[in-house]
Amino acid sequence: MRSDRLPVAAALLFLAFAVGASVLLPATETQHGGDRAARSFLAAWQRKLEGTYLVESSFTRTAPGTAAFESSTRLVQRPPDRLISGLGSVEGRLQGKVVRCGTDSSGLGRCFRSADDAPPYDDAVASEVDGLGSYVLGERPLYAVVDFLDGCFRLDLAVQLPVPTYGAQALFCFDKATGAPSRTVIDRTDAIETTAAVRISGDVTDADLQVPDDRGTVVTLPGTPSPTSTTVSTSS
Length: 236
Hints:
The protein is α+β, with helices and mostly antiparallel strands. The protein is about 20% helix and about 35% strand. Strand 6 (about 95-105) and strand 7 form a beta hairpin. It is globular and about 45 Å long. The protein starts with 5 loop residues before the first helix and ends in a 15-residue tail after the last strand. The model is unreliable at about 1-25, about 215-220 and about 225-235 (pLDDT under 50).
């Protein structure tokens, strides 16, 4: 690169970083970092898992040079029942059983309910929070946490990984009234994924916790194990 172009290149690089970072920064300058911020983040995450609410959100994935992908998601939670739907699938747990619904290659929707009981919900919550804690606590955490003291937390990748779970940087915001996820932005370097709540309600009825009719007949699989990973999802 010619030396007379270095200042221009440096300016463009800074501009690109500033634009990308601005997506993940809430409009506040009040913040805490370090272990204190990480523990506040874990407390907010646990409250999210233990809360009762219904959230309807929009999901957008943008990447340079490509058209944005848009969809919608719906999360209904009244512990120990929980259902998340979107992108043509439904998963969660109802009446102590793990439920999964999807669409096969022929376009037929089918749902499956585990024959075995799902793990106790409290155990699933504790397991997920502990797992997340291994990302943000310790002498060399994978992510450094910034607490913006307004229900929002930013995670900055601190250790180089081939495919980091929450990308190079992520923003998680939670609703003050219910603890529900209100906004999530994940910068995966090659794309930015944004999930933004368009409606949050703290009232959940039995009707809200029904598998949608268009997902097909619920089928019980004899002896099907109930994996903890599908009981409580960390992607919401």
